[in-house]
Write a structure and sequence with these properties.
The structure is a single chain. Helix content is 7%, strand content 38%. The chain is mainly β and 766 residues long. Strands 1, 3, 4, 6, 9, 10, 11 and 13 form an eight-stranded antiparallel sheet that branches. A five-stranded antiparallel sheet has the order 2-5-12-7-8, sandwiched between helices. Strands 44-50-49-45-46 form a five-stranded mixed sheet, with no helix packed on it. The longest helix has 13 residues. It is elongated. The termini are far apart.
Length: 766
């Protein structure tokens, strides 16, 4: 219903459209099928046509859906030709007014051959058929497909289409459809060629073949059309073919279509093949036969760049260089002639270089492993645009592309095949060949001296690194031609094949001594292979740990290491195995053995001297927890004593009994003993027994006489003062007012007179 309403709408618009006939095509629908074929399409004595037939719309009587069209000076691409349409042929005249009526004949049927060829359910079909016998070997024609389906959403749904059907006359085979998109089998139709259609929601399809939408100034009355299309095929001269040109609507009779066939399309043509231009040139040095594929009985003239090639009268011509070639054929006994042309360019020559590859032989048998790929860039002259090189053992194999060498990077040469052949192609698949000669190196290389180094690790295990470029390469290259390089390998197999190259900084894997192999490389060639002995010397002198030493102030000390080394060097500049130093500091000596290996020993010399005891902190009146902390000055390393006999590292003495002590500090480095320092440790008795036995009969504090201002007050448990004693008193005998006091605990206050007060208690036992 929507399509029908749209038709009515545009029918009203049609009435008001101004027709500018001067630029529109004209159509004559009175031509018969024979006239359309003989006078318009073929119009040549170089082909025989017969058995003509045309079918199409039959209403109204006297008007056909096919006819002859001419270009009345407008923009239409064809000057004249044959028109086949799905409505009255005269409706095809411009300008474009979308709907002109007379295309809605529901009784007008489709075409089964077209249905089969392009896969539609056709209606309103128009066809033109005839038999065709060519004298040439090539058939082609130009056409334009136009349609009102190029409107709104129609290209998304409807596939009005055209077919150029051909087959050998009388053949039961299906027709071949020549009306296809170039290079494909896709048929030409409104659904296969159209722009993006937003209204229908479908994207563009093969839009490069669509010539655009028409307007009110277009020379034909269709919504849009394709560009000029070409249908072509090879045929056999003298053979008769049946041709059927047919167009139809898809599914319904609305929105009509047409095909415009260019006049003279079936004129005789000579097909010499496609042009061979810069994207597909003929290879340098090759020849190309261009052939008419016609009988030798015809008369031929060949031309190069429009100049006749004298003496060339055969149906074919062999081309050897670039040019524009053409042929003129006069068909006999017919009186017609035909021409063909082809443009040919030649690719530039592939420039290759023959070369030689020299390889080392590890055992002198003349057989070794070659890396042929080393010659690739030399052969190709470093031209990256050329293909990878493929190697063969013979030129015939290379030319035939048979038996290529499968392992060019590890090719084992054959004594009977001293030369190989390289095949290289360019981007046009043209080939050229180069020769690769395989040579076994016979250069003499002098035996190499061992290369030694010292084990510089903390662990002397005979494993250490070598800088091969610095320590080995200069020796290897001595006396050899300039420009060579050296590579190193663990074994000769790797050296020959140049696999598993050792790093420049190489740490030996066999302790103390190991043989590696140096390959001298001259460009891509192996100059020679020579073994290299690497030696790692260990040096681990005894008693070589770093030491600390002391130097008594005002004296000297001797630093020394063992004798017997090759060289000595102290950081003081001296070169003997021992030195005498008079100042503290850091000293070191580097010793060297017979192999030149070095070890360094360090000495840290510190000053030392006699200490001075400046004071002592006494913690007394604590019983078993009495302690003495000696305070001192000095730069030595000291030990301490309270009796001059027993010394300890700690200046703190604990558990000290009350008494009179002489403290000493002694330098451990032997620099001497300090002056004695007297120390008193006081404490009070925890009990006394005044029983007249002469032992412990008085309670008193020893050495209290050292503190003349000291006063002791004794109390009973109730705080009653019982006795006061001074520093020189002989002690308390346990009486009060000459009466013996009972056994009990008693308290005292010891006032030193300088603000220090000691309080405690003790027991009287009887």
């Amino acid at each position: 219903m929507k399509r029908f309403q749209t038709i009515l709408f545009f029918a009203l618009i049609c009435c008001n459209t101004i027709i500018v006939s001067a630029q529109n095509i004209t159509v004559d629908d009175s031509y018969t099928a024979q006239q359309l074929v003989e006078n318009v399409l073929v119009n040549s004595s170089c082909a025989t046509v017969s058995n003509y037939a045309a079918s199409g719309d039959t209403t109204p009587v006297g008007q056909n859906s096919y006819g002859y069209f001419t270009n009345a000076g407008g923009s239409f691409p064809f000057k004249e030709g044959v028109l086949l349409s799905t409505w009255g042929a005269n409706n095809s005249k411009g300008p474009y007014v979308f709907y002109r009526g007379d295309g809605n004949d529901s009784a007008w049927s489709g075409d089964m051959d077209l249905n089969q060829a392009i896969g539609i359910a056709s209606t309103n079909a128009t066809s033109l058929e005839f038999d065709f016998t060519p004298l040439t070997n090539f058939l082609s024609f130009d056409y334009i497909f136009a349609s009102n389906e190029y409107k709104d959403e129609s290209p998304c749904q409807y596939s009005d289409g055209f077919a150029f059907l051909i087959k050998e006359k009388g053949s039961p085979a299906n027709y071949q459809n020549l009306a296809v998109i170039p290079g494909t089998t896709t048929t030409v139709s409104s659904i296969n060629i159209h722009p993006a259609t937003p209204l229908g929601g479908c994207s563009a399809v093969n839009e490069i073949y669509y010539n655009g939408n028409n307007t009110a100034t277009s020379p034909i009355n269709y919504a849009g059309q394709t560009v000029v299309m070409n249908a072509q095929t090879n045929v056999v001269a003298g053979k008769t073919y049946h041709i059927k040109l047919v167009i139809a609507d898809d599914k319904n009779q609305y929105y009509d279509s047409a095909v415009f066939l260019k006049a003279g399309s079936f004129a005789p043509k000579i097909d010499l093949g496609p042009d061979r231009l810069r994207d597909n040139p003929v290879c340098f040095g090759e020849s190309l036969v261009i052939d008419t594929k016609l009988p030798a009985s015809y008369a031929y003239k060949w031309f190069k760049n429009n100049v006749e090639i004298i003496g060339e009268t055969k149906p074919f011509y062999t081309v050897t260089d670039t040019g524009a070639y053409s042929v003129e054929v006069i068909f006999t006994p017919a009186t017609c002639s035909a021409t063909g042309n082809i443009n040919i360019e030649y690719a530039p020559k592939i420039l290759l270089t023959d070369t030689t590859l020299t390889q080392c032989d590890d055992n002198g048998d003349g057989v070794t492993i070659f890396d042929l790929t080393k010659a690739d860039n030399i052969i190709k002259n470093n031209d990256a645009s050329l293909s990878p090189v493929v190697y063969y053992e013979s030129l015939s194999d290379a030319q035939g592309k048979i038996n290529p060498i499968q392992n060019p990077a590890t090719y084992t040469n054959k004594l009977t095949v001293p030369n190989l052949f390289a095949r290289v192609t360019n981007t046009f698949n043209c080939a050229n060949y180069a020769q690769l000669s395989l040579v076994i190196a016979n250069n003499s290389i002098a035996p190499q001296n061992p290369v030694s180094t010292c084990d510089g690790d903390a662990v002397q295990d005979g494993l250490y690194q070598f800088d091969l470029n610095t320590q080995v390469t200069p020796q290897v290259l001595t006396g050899l031609p300039a420009g060579m390089i050296v590579e190193y390998y663990l074994n000769t197999t790797d050296a020959v094949s140049q696999k598993n190259t050792l790093p420049n900084i190489f740490k030996n894997t066999t302790a103390n001594q190991q043989i590696i192999y140096a390959q001298i490389v001259n460009g891509a060639d192996c100059y020679g292979i020579v073994p290299i002995t690497l030696v790692v010397n260990t040096f681990s002198p005894a008693n070589f740990q770093d030491e600390a030493a002391a130097l008594c102030i005002g004296s000297s000390t001797t630093l020394n290491v063992a004798s017997g080394y090759s060289n000595y060097l102290w950081n003081t500049g001296e070169t003997t195995n021992s030195i005498k130093v008079t100042a503290s500091g850091d000293y070191s000596v580097k010793v060297t053995d017979v192999n030149g290996c070095e070890k360094t020993k360090k000495f840290n010399v510190t000053s030392s001297g006699i200490a001075t005891i400046t004071a002592a902190k006494v913690n007394d009146f604590e019983g078993n927890e009495n302690s003495v902390l000696i305070e001192y000055t000095g730069v030595g390393n000291y030990e301490f004593s309270l009796d001059g006999l027993y010394f300890q590292d700690n200046p703190l003495f604990t558990g000290i009994a009350p008494g009179n002590y002489l403290a000493y500090a002694r330098d451990k480095n032997g620099c001497g003993l300090s002056a004695p320092f007297q120390i008193y440790v006081l404490d009070y008795p925890r009990f006394f027994t005044p029983n007249g036995d002469g032992y412990n009969d008085f309670w008193k504090i020893k050495n209290l006489d050292l503190f003349p201002d000291a006063v002791i007050s004794v109390f009973n448990r109730y705080g009653k003062l019982l006795k006061q004693l001074n520093a020189n008193s002989s002690g308390w005998n346990g009486t009060f007012n000459n009466s013996e006091l009972p056994a009990d605990d008693y308290w005292f206050h010891l006032n030193f007179g300088d603000g220090k007060i000691i309080k405690g208690h003790f027991s009287l036992k009887r």
